[in-house]
Amino acid sequence: MKQAKVNLDGAALSLLHPLVSGATTLALRCREAHWNVKGPNFGPLHELFGDFYDFMNDWADTLAERVVQQGGAAWALDSYTGPGLIGDEKFLLENIAIAGNSLATIVHTTIPKLGDDETSKDVLIEFGRELEKWVWKIEAHLMEFKRLGEAKPETEVAEETIAGPVKGTGRFLTEGEIRAAAQTPTKDFSAIVTARSILVKSASGHIYAFDENVMPISKAKDPSEQDEAQRWLQENFNEVLGD
Length: 243
What we know:
The protein is mainly α. Helices cover about 55% and strands about 5% of the residues. It folds into two domains: about 10-145, Ferritin, core subunit, four-helix bundle (Ferritin, Up-down Bundle), CATH 1.20.1260; about 175-240, no CATH class.
């Protein structure tokens, strides 16, 4: 699309410079997240951060070209501090979401200040709309991460310090109660409810964690037994939850 030239003055051009720098900075942060992500969600997050980097890199280029077309000079960064984004999956998602929301705010506050430069306004409106979609994707992954309660490995799931309340009783399970439930022999399966999950203990001593939709949230030592535990829980779901 050919962009019209409106001979922006220095003050108007100065409004676009922070967007070029902000877009470049966010692109680099996405690149760092793409490089440094580790954990059980590596595959989808590695791809997500890589795709967001490509999006931001393209828009940094578009915004810089717009500045030059209007008679200004573009530069990539005002400042950039290291060592960059290094942390767990939640840390990376949170920081990319914060940076994306911050840049989206700058975009929307800049648009009405551009006066008669309707072309630059249109460019920023499109950029802001697409940027908000990407931030929404990042935040959706973050919400899912939080929804699953950052599920602990199966070896740790029965060691909650505080693990209640038990639905239908109004009281909290203690760590001791969970340990006792995990160690007491039962026929087939038994279940206890924690704040994070429904724990099902098998007669063989394995513990499996399920969410409120009876979906597994911990790695199974015995997948076939987990399937049996899931079927048992679905059949006894209301009784387990105290409905």
